[in-house]
């Protein structure tokens, strides 16, 4: 048993509360969190808990703030090595960056290196749970699952599936996708904290036969998630219209195959029609908003207000590697900027709402009841933001008016270098023994 002493900020509320009230931040300054068997067993004021537990080990995290681990609802593990490329339109990005990089993973050493770096990058940015598009190649996806288990990252992932519209190296036939998916799902789903996701790349890269296989795979076991892209860019939407002339719209293609439901997450949704939002809402499906990617690829401004009005729930995704790659804090600050640019339609994203989007919203989208805030009973998945001594953020935090103001500064200014510690299931995963000491 260990007691963590810290200023703890979290947002233990559901969608209704967060959009009805601007400030849903729970603040406990000088709190004690008692962790037993990886879970929050007790929490409360430090003086009360210490008086009752005078002999337990204490980890002092009083500098900075302790937040719940971040939940990334959309990332491509195989694209970690193309992070930081200049922005460009989606078709060019796929052709010049994303797909050539994914092809390199036929070399198993490249796949292992990317898997390791993806996990390390995400954890270092404070991401403790993620919904991940694996490689098109099943063996490379398995390398990612191994790296996630070894690193302590909680993942829902599966191989990305495409039977057209991508280079031949990355194509699989529907029969092959079914056989490989069945095998990988049978061996990995529900074991070592891994959950399986069925991942059609997007409708332009999947025939009806492939989408039918996706439907079959998602029904193989309880708790299997389904994730794909939708309505990201105008070119892509026009392509879907051409390839699936019988369907009413893009979401309708997935819906016809039974892929739109409460265990599915659709990345982007930048250009949805009202009828599409109604289908997403009626099925209980969620959307992963990826603001840094949308801005860098020039995809557009995410219409959060229209999603909320239609009853569609959203979380945040990094979209590694099209996104800026600095994790969910970077996504949160970009989300706020996108809403500001959305003029009359923009939703005010307070620091509390941004923290909620980066944590609890993702947990709800992934059905991960163990994470999302630091309430009693949840897993101790946490991020300690402690800016380096003398840094701008450290100086500004010293001048913050209150906890909400401090959180606003953290969201706006913190980078991976300010993340001093990350825990999943009660185990410290950043820094790890392999990293140099000093933080
Ligand atoms: Zn993506």
UniProtKB/TrEMBL annotation:
Gene Ontology molecular function: any one: guanine deaminase activity
Q: Which cofactor does it need?
A: Zn(2+)
User: Per the record's keyword annotation, is Chloroplast included, yes or no?
Assistant: no
Instruction: Tell me the keywords, alphabetical order.
Output: Hydrolase, Metal-binding, Zinc
Q: Name one GO cellular component term.
A: cytosol
- Domain (Amidohydrolase-related) spans 65-426
Biological process GO terms, please? guanine metabolic process
Q: Name one Pfam family in it.
A: Amidohydro_1
Q: What is this protein called?
A: Guanine deaminase
Query: What organism does the UniProt record list as the source?
Result: Mobilicoccus pelagius NBRC 104925
């Amino acid at each position: 048993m260990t007691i963590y002493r810290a200023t703890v900020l979290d947002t233990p509320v559901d969608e209704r509360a967060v959009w009805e009230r601007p400030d849903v931040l729970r603040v406990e300054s000088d709190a004690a969190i008692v962790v037993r068997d990886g879970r929050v067993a007790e929490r409360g004021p430090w003086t009360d808990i210490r008086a009752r537990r005078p002999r337990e080990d204490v980890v002092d995290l009083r500098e900075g703030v302790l937040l719940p681990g971040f939940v990334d609802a959309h990332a491509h593990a195989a694209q970690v090595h193309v992070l930081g490329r200049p922005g460009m339109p989606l078709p060019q990005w796929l052709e010049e960056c994303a797909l050539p990089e994914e092809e390199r993973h036929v070399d198993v050493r490249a796949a292992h290196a990317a898997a390791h770096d993806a996990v390390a990058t995400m954890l270092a940015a404070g991401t403790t749970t993620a919904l991940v598009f694996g490689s098109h190649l099943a063996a490379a996806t398995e390398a990612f699952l191994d790296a996630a288990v070894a690193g302590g990252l909680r993942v829902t992932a599966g191989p990305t599936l495409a039977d057209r519209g991508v280079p031949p190296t990355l194509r699989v036939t529907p029969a092959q996708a079914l056989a490989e998916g069945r095998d990988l799902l049978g061996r990995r789903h529900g074991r070592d904290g891994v959950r399986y996701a069925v991942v059609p790349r997007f409708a332009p890269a999947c025939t009806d036969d492939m989408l039918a296989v996706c439907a079959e795979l998602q029904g193989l076991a309880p708790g299997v998630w389904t994730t794909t892209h939708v309505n990201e860019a105008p070119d892509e939407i026009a392509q879907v219209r051409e390839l699936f002339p019988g369907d009413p719209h893009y979401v309708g293609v997935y819906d016809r195959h039974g892929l739109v439901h409460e265990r599915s997450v659709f990345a982007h949704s930048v250009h949805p029609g009202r009828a599409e939002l109604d289908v997403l809402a009626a099925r209980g499906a969620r959307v992963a908003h990826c603001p840094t990617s949308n801005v860098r690829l020039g995809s557009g401004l995410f219409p959060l207000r229209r999603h909320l009005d239609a009853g569609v729930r959203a979380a945040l995704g990094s979209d590694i590697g099209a996104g800026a790659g600095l994790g969910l804090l970077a996504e949160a600050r970009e989300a706020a900027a996108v809403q500001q640019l959305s003029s009359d339609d923009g939703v005010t994203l307070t620091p509390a709402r941004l923290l909620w989007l980066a944590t609890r919203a993702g947990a709800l989208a992934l059905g991960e009841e163990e994470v999302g805030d630091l309430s009693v009973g949840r897993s101790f998945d946490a991020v300690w933001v402690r800016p380096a001594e003398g840094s701008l953020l450290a100086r500004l935090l010293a001048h913050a008016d209150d906890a909400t103001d401090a959180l606003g500064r953290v969201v706006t200014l913190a980078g991976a270098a300010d993340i001093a510690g990350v825990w999943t299931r009660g185990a410290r995963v950043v820094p790890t023994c392999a990293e140099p000491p000093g933080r």
